[in-house]
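Researcher: Next entry: Ethanolamine ammonia-lyase large subunit (Roseomonas mucosa).
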Amino acid sequence: MTGRAGLAGGERHRFEDLRHLLAAATPRRSGDELAGIAAGSDAERVAARRVLAELPLKAFLSESVVPYEADEVTRLILDTHDAMAFAAVSHMTVGDFRDWLLSHEADAAALAALAPGLTPEMVAAVSKLMRNQDLIAVARKCRVVTAFRNTIGLEGRLASRLQPNHPADDARGIAVSVLDGLLHGSGDAVIGINPATDSVRNAVELLRMLDALRERYGIPTQTCVLTHVTNAIRAIELGAPVDLVFQSVAGTEGANRGFGVDLATLREAREAALSLGRGTAGDNVMYFETGQGSALSAEAHHGVDQQTLECRAYAVARAFRPLLVNTVVGFIGPEYLYDGKQIARAGLEDHCCGKLLGLPMGVDACYTNHAEADGDDMDALMVLLGAAGVNFLIAVPGADDIMLNYQSLSFHDILALRSMLGLRPAPEFEAWLERMEMLGADGRMRPPLPQSPQAARLLAMAQDREEGG
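Model: Predicted structure:
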């Protein structure tokens, strides 16, 4: 597609190429304005959406937003495209595709079969034509189930990542946060630490601490230290108990180089983790995090809007069959998503687009302290994501991460959302909570009274950690 024009408000707008069209059609956000690629007016944005709605989906297979010869992510997208899966919608325009996604014919089975035939640019394009309620309705129909020691993504379930970060990686401080989360029913997606000191030795020590706690009390979950993928490979070589390999990924080869990673390194890491055979319910061993704006901050965006590049990051994740993928939606800052409205829109886009591409999507509903957002905005986004069928959310003690210095959700928020929407933890984790007498027959977490059996068990766990350092 080159040189297409559209009308809106009596004005005629010309879009030079696919990059320009996608950027102009994107809902307003500060990152695209910072990059100088956003629509110059609401009229231009409407005109771009009209042109985009008439664009055949096949056009995305003949024109790349990032050159094939210069970018391994583009090559991955096009070389692995499933033409047979795409055939079901290959005759459609982007507007037709939106209408079909909202129809009854686009059920969970149809969407799962279609996922390998969709490119990131296709799902980014169709999301730009959707209202927030459309994003929720489509994502809710997508069901992506993964497993390691428990099963994530089943209908009627909401998992959570228990994030017990500590500014000094103090073992006792981390253990207290873990216990706090478990008492509130959090941790079924993963107990995952962002280390304050990113060294192999520190990662190995934290991994051994988490694994000893998990194993002693038979907790059917997975643990992860979110260290760099090369550190995880080295930790595996040293015999560390690695469940999941973590890595932040982006939508261009250059942005991934900024993270110190490429596709070959990710393949090596996945094979190393699989060789350990630690999963009992499944073999999904990778955990990826993404976020709109990462390619722009790395100066590797190629003039492409940040939401389209975010979807391209999902192509990287999809290639490695991850257990978990989450967008840390407001973490990069207001330079990319200015306020609560932009953060909420991005969170719904990311979740829906990731699900359409076949990914087990979660969201860190979060913001930095200098953004025009607050806890009420995150409450609203949390409920919207719950209605959209999000696989998991991230929770930290008191909703305040004292190591990364940003605001997220709390363990109490996960309990509240499950109660409001009738959602339950992952089945294996739920059974463990019942065995520990932490979850009642009514499906509610029991308060940890001093005389209760579960309190005694968990207090013993805390004392073990304190005595063992």
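Model: Note for the record: The longest helix spans residues 200-216.
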